[in-house]
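Take a careful look at the protein record below. Let me know whether the structure tokens fit the sequence:
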Amino acid sequence: MTKVVFHLDMDEAERLVMALNNISNLLKEIPSTEAAICLVSNGSAVRLFQRDFAAAHGMRVEELSGKGVRFLMCSNSLRNLNLDPGEMLNGCEVIKAGIVELISLQADGYAYIKP
């Protein structure tokens, strides 16, 4: 099983596009049934996944989510930025703390990628 975690922590759309491209390319090489792929978003990057602002990328996020990719949003960051978790794109999951999730995933053997 190939295990990969992508990490976004800045509100930079070009990094989101790069991460989505990386994930799509990875899934061309490794079937989704043989991969565990997560994208952890914390800091200002959670803004990139707001439904109202992510129209350009929302369909890709939902498509990849349908292939088993997990999009994990840090609840601390949402709270610090006064964002409602209900405003996130479909397919996004809210987790307690992005940094703790990153540590846990890496301890579980996930490769860390920072686009």
